[in-house]
Structure formats: C-alpha cells, structure tokens
Amino acid sequence: MEIPYAPLKELRSTGYFYDKLKAYSESPDMALSTYCVNFVSPYLAEVSASYDKTGLFHKSKILKLAIKYLSNPKDDELIDLIFGIRKIAASEVDKATRADFTDHLDKAEAWANRQKLQSAEFLLKLLLNIIKIFRLPDSNTNLGKTDENVNPTFEAISESWEILEKKIS
What we know:
By secondary structure, this protein is mainly alpha-helical. It has one domain (5-168). The chain is built from 7 helices and 2 strands. Strands 1-2 form a two-stranded antiparallel ribbon. Helix 4 (57-70) runs parallel beside helix 6 and helix 5 (78-102) crosses helix 7. The radius of gyration is 17 Å and the shape is globular.
C-alpha cells in the first residue's frame, strides 16, 4: 500500500500544530507516518501528561492507547491503526453518552464518565481530521470480528484497550 501524503498547506489550515508545521520545511508534502510520529503522538503525549498531572486519569486513558499505536507505526498498518483507534473512540463516545442517559450514576461516576466522553470526542475529532486531510480510504470497513475476516490490527488495538480499561478503572 502506498504511503499517503498531504500538502503542508492543507495540514497548516487545520489549525493543529500550526506553529510547528510552519517551521517544517523538508518538503511541500508530508507523509502520514511523519505526521503521526512527529506531530500527533507528541501532542497527544503532552495532553495526556497534563491530564495525569492534574489527576484526570480517565481523560488520558484513550489518549495513551492512541500514543501507543501512533508513536512508532509500521507504514503498512498505519491506516488500519487510525481507523481502529477511531472505531474505539467512537464506541467510547457512544457508551459514555448512553451511560449519561440510561445509567444512574453517582457524582464520581458521572464525573469520570464525562472525562471519558470529552477525551474520546477530542481524539475522534483529531482522527477524523487526519482521515479527511490525508484522504484515507477505509481499507477495512468491517473492523473486528466477522465470520470471514478478522483484522489483526484492530484485534490488537481492542485487546490493548480492554487491558487499559481494566487497569485504570
């Protein structure tokens, strides 16, 4: 699979990492892997660290999952990783939104749920921006288990997420 590139001008127009992208002058286009490793992962690590520092551990959990997979990706798995993380973030938004309306949460649970929701929405917005700017094809629309096809990349991300969920719950 060919590595996706996006024009630097379009990347700057998103507002994400504008100052850092302004200083980037290696070429007029940037590879998706370069963008994820040099811009997205460090940004998510900064945000996650600031949440941890202030005790907002539920907010940093899903960001840590994204950092783990986007920090050192294999080029041939990167698109699947982005779509897999996006699917988990969307699922977390759905779960947190449903919990707000259907579960009877006490104050602490409601607060933790709200943190998870905000963080998942933040990550989802960033990933959707990446998908749009790099014009990523949804290479495997049926991520996860199906009768015929199992996406190993998504399965690995899902397993990591389950472990992380249990660890910090």
